[in-house]
């Protein structure tokens, strides 16, 4: 290619790099704002999006999760956008390094998830069951979220109705939550066993397995974008030496 064509290609890639990272920066700012909103005013968030929108709050504090993801995207977007705009080798290398670290972490997490899926499920269940026993019927928001979850996906507890044995709710009411008996009252141990309602954990895992193709496609798309971003940043970095 002629010097003019090479310069034109460099300018085009530089502009695309700026626009792409500007979109990442704005997305990160949006997630950060939503995360702060959820953290500081959870009730208002639930009023707007409904109780089921925060079902996963049983496992992860959604507000802090969004704040972390938003902050990471802000940093990535800033480094990529400013690095391309100012043609700064330092910022471009920092951008490349951050994206590379995230990519390696994602690959490692995927490998661990595939190899130790059974162990992860066991550990997660062991951690969450005591929380369910302690907070269900005590924490109003936690209880509402669990009730909405159990009614929506027709499940009971994490594994089954026995998760409520020796819980504060069971000790106070001498019964199990209504969804454990398919909303038949009184929900005692015999009726709960006869109803045989599966646990919410199994239901959620089954839903994830059902949509594994979609999840895999999204993960592959994200990985492709990360590889493309690293390639473009390294191209710009190397071209700056030639300039």
From TrEMBL:
Broad class of the protein's primary localization: membrane
Transmembrane spans: 12-38, 58-79, 91-116, 214-238
The organism's place on the tree of life at top rank: Eukaryota
Keywords carried by this UniProt record: Glycoprotein, Lysosome, Membrane, Transmembrane, Transmembrane helix
Cited InterPro entries: Tetraspanin/Peripherin, Tetraspanin_animals, Tetraspanin_CS, Tetraspanin_EC2_sf
Keyword Transmembrane helix (UniProt): yes
Record-linked Pfam families: Tetraspanin (PF00335)
Cellular compartments annotated: Lysosome membrane; Membrane
Record GO cellular component, one term: plasma membrane
Membrane topology per record: Multi-pass membrane protein
Family affiliation: Belongs to the tetraspanin (TM4SF) family.
Self-association state and partner proteins as the record states: Interacts with SLC19A2. Interacts with NTRK1/TRKA.
Biological role: Structural component of specialized membrane microdomains known as tetraspanin-enriched microdomains (TERMs), which act as platforms for receptor clustering and signaling. Participates thereby in diverse biological functions such as cell signal transduction, adhesion, migration and protein trafficking. Regulates neuronal differentiation in response to NGF by facilitating NGF-mediated activation of NTRK1/TRKA receptor tyrosine kinase and subsequent downstream signaling pathways. Plays a role in the inhibition of TNFalpha-induced apoptosis.
Record-given protein name: Tetraspanin
Originating organism: Semnornis frantzii
């Amino acid at each position: 290619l002629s010097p003019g064509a090479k310069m034109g290609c460099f300018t085009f890639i530089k502009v695309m790099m700026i626009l792409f990272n500007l979109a990442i920066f704005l997305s990160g700012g949006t997630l950060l704002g939503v995360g702060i909103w959820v953290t500081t005013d959870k009730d208002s968030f639930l009023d707007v999006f409904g109780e089921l929108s925060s079902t996963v709050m049983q496992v992860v504090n959604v507000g802090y999760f969004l704040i972390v993801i938003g902050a990471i995207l802000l940093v990535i977007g800033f480094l990529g956008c400013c690095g391309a705009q100012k043609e700064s080798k330092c910022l471009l290398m920092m951008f490349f390094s951050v994206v590379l670290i995230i990519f390696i972490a994602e690959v490692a997490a995927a490998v661990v998830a595939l190899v130790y899926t059974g162990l992860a499920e066991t550990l997660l269940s062991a951690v969450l069951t005591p929380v369910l026993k302690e907070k269900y019927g005590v924490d109003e928001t936690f209880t509402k979220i669990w009730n909405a979850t159990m009614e929506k996906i027709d499940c009971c507890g994490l594994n089954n109705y026995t998760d409520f044995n020796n819980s504060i709710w069971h000790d106070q009411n001498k019964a199990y939550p209504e969804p454990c008996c398919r909303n038949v009252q009184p929900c005692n141990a015999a009726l709960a066993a006869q109803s045989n309602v599966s646990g919410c954990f199994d239901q959620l895992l089954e839903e994830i397995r059902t949509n594994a193709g979609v999840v895999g496609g999204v993960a592959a798309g994200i990985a492709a974008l990360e590889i493309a971003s690293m390639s473009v940043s390294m191209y710009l970095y190397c071209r700056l030496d030639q300039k």
